[in-house]
C-alpha cells in the first residue's frame, strides 16, 4: 500500500511534468497503480490533497533544504551556501516544479500564500547566509541569487543543473569575502 508521502511525491512529479490541471485522482491512481479507495484512505478529497501537496512542496524544497544546509555544528556560512547550492542543483527537475507551483499560485489563493511564504523564507535564509559571509547588501544579494533560480526555470530550453551552478558561482565570485564571526 502506498504511503501518504508516496501520493504526495507522485503529485509533485505530475505537477512538475504537466501542471496542476493534471493532478487528479484518476491520474495519480493510474500512475501509482492504485485505487481511489487508497487515495481516500489518506486524503478527504482533492482540496485536502492539494493543500497537503503544497505543504509537502514547502517541506521538501524549503524546510528540508535549509535543515540540511544548517546541519553540522560549526560549518561556515560558505559551506552552508555550498550545501544549499548542491541541493538546489542536484534534485531532478526542480526548475520544472518551481515553475509549475508559480503557475498554480497565479490561479489559487492557497498556492499563492504558500508561494509567498516559501519565497520570503528562502530569501531571508539566503540573506542570513550572505550576511554571515561578510557580504554587503544581504537582502539585495539574496534577491539576486533567488531570482537566478526563478528565472532559470523559465528558460526554454532550460539550463542544465551544471549550467545553473556555473551562473550561481559567477554571481557570488566577485563578492567572496572573509566570514564574520
TrEMBL record:
Show the Gene3D superfamilies listed in the entry.
Tetracycline Repressor, domain 2
Q: Which UniProt keywords apply?
A: DNA-binding
**SUPFAM superfamilies listed in its UniProt record:** Homeodomain-like
HTH tetR-type domain location, by residue?
A: 1-61
- Phosphoprotein: is it a keyword of this entry? no
Ligase as a keyword of this entry, yes or no, is no
Question: What's a Pfam family this protein contains?
Answer: TetR_N
Matching InterPro entries, A to Z?
Homeodomain-like_sf (IPR009057), HTH_TetR (IPR001647)
Q: Which residues bind DNA?
A: 24-43
Q: Which residues form a coiled coil?
A: none
Q: What is this protein called?
A: TetR/AcrR family transcriptional regulator
